[in-house]
What we know:
CATH class of chain A: Alpha Beta
Helix content of chain A: 10-25%
Strand order of the largest sheet of chain A: 1-2-4-5-6-3
CATH architecture of chain A: Roll
Number of helices of chain A: 1
Number of domains of chain A: 1
Structural class of chain A: alpha+beta
Oligomer: homodimer
Order of helices and strands of chain A: EEHEEEE
Largest sheet of chain A: 6 strands, antiparallel
CATH topology of chain A: Thiol Ester Dehydrase, Chain A
Largest interface: A-B, 41 and 41 residues
Strand content of chain A: 25-35%
Amino acid sequence: xxxxxxxxxxxxxxxxxxxxxxxxxxxxxxxxxxxxxxxxxxxxxxxxxxxxxxxxxxxxxxxxxxxxxxxxxxxxxxxxxxxxxxxxxxxxxxxxxxxxxxxxxxxxxxxxxxxxxxxxxxxxxxxxxxxxxxxxxxxxxxxxxxxxxxxxxxx
Amino acid sequence: xxxxxxxxxxxxxxxxxxxxxxxxxxxxxxxxxxxxxxxxxxxxxxxxxxxxxxxxxxxxxxxxxxxxxxxxxxxxxxxxxxxxxxxxxxxxxxxxxxxxxxxxxxxxxxxxxxxxxxxxxxxxxxxxxxxxxxxxxxxxxxxxxxxxxxxxxxx
Lengths: 155, 155
């Protein structure tokens, strides 16, 4: 478990090898986005700048599917980290969470060509079920928020 | 407006040129998925087979972000088609809808290397606000469902 306030190892890099091929965040997916999420105190943090090709329906805005995708990977990583933090799980690899439900609210357009910041906080833990609340910011303003129910795979 | 029961023109191909660069479904995005959605009676239909690289957290399953992305583009296209069907909109181009909120429920794993079928039905229309309910099937079984609130851009 990460002992310092800021974990230097991305959460996704601790996934077991079998679960490391996710297009959004798997270290072993050669073509993927390789989203990296960090646990910082009681919050999780990812930063990502989508490629120019990820334009949305309105010129200059980021593709909504990209925003949902970032929340999806950030949320399952956050759930794994919060779960371990809560349970003092001493297993050598993190529990791997999958998404049961994802609610995304698009609050304001997300401009392209900017670094996006995704943050997550724990809402609740009940056994293998973890709820995570998230925001996505560009240029210091929240552009979208999300809530995920994530469930740990049995191991 | 499409007069026959099955519209042969994809909804996305009727978007105004300014709104045709979406990564998920824009005809003018050279790198995108080019999702095509059809209005068939009171239902919308898209079919899409994700590339092998779009693996999810569990081997052999489709990336959750891809599933959310397909719902995002299918939903806004459906909203545009249902809105025109409801309002007998005679404008030369479809109203362009953007996503206000998207709820995705992942019901069962979605296997890779299969054609996915996305269906949409109208839930409600209130002015520029259209709610669409959707399902995503693989091998004849519903793997995920979704609900979108889409809002038409002013024109």
